[in-house]
């Protein structure tokens, strides 16, 4: 078993705040698919941000793909991130570029030949059911369609690791299920996948390992329909 991600007693606080993650330790093997669950504010997004080196833990050690993130030099962060597909809540799409251009961008940045870019981009668009929108501008699409453009852009480089934060948040139930099954297919093809989600029904439909957070700590208590009810009502 090759370890892809390791957290050893990791704590993190935003500037001026309190610890939002405290003494978090876990290990994820290459090829695993893992859900990160927990009530709103439990620290799910922060956990994914730490793995992507978008922020840096004050205490403990994080190793991702063999790289110890506490000693990763800022100028090396972009190269490190090239192996990660990020799907975050704000889609960060370029409003003045077509769907095709948005999805192709990571390949353009990496200097792929145009024929390769076109083939891979269309394959990613096809996988997310977006081919017919390739010439559209993102703002002419629905929220769910824009979310899928963000996912297509994250997978187009065939990353070793996909980190997805609430990737089904804006999707209708059928599309949400399709997207979750899509992640499971990438995972079957060997990609390690971590998904922060509240969608207990999808987790039950596509069951995988769960890392459950409660107030910044890993908890053995797994998410249930009852906790989902609590979340809907904002109970912490
Ligand atoms: N940029 C920030 N500055 C200060 N505090 C922050 C920042 N981002 C998040 N927090 C705080 O950190 C805690 C954890 O937030 P995080 O977004 O990781 O939780 P989450 O489990 O992903 O929540 P949600 O399910 O609502 O997305 C929360 O208390 C939040 O208010």
UniProtKB/TrEMBL annotation:
It is a peripheral membrane protein. The keyword Membrane applies. Residues 5-232 form the ABC transporter domain. PROSITE patterns: ABC_TRANSPORTER_1, ABC_TRANSPORTER_2. GO terms for molecular function: ATP binding; ATP hydrolysis activity. SMART domains: AAA. It is found in: Cell inner membrane. Keywords: ATP-binding, Cell cycle, Cell division, Cell membrane, Membrane, Nucleotide-binding, Transport. InterPro entries: AAA+_ATPase (IPR003593), ABC_transporter-like_ATP-bd (IPR003439), ABC_transporter-like_CS (IPR017871), Cell_div_FtsE (IPR005286), MetN_ABC_transporter-like (IPR050086), P-loop_NTPase (IPR027417). SUPFAM superfamilies: P-loop containing nucleoside triphosphate hydrolases. GO terms for biological process: cell division. GO terms for cellular component: plasma membrane. It comes from the Bacteria. Belongs to the ABC transporter superfamily. Part of the ABC transporter FtsEX involved in cellular division. Important for assembly or stability of the septal ring. Homodimer. Forms a membrane-associated complex with FtsX. This is Cell division ATP-binding protein FtsE. It comes from Solimonas marina.
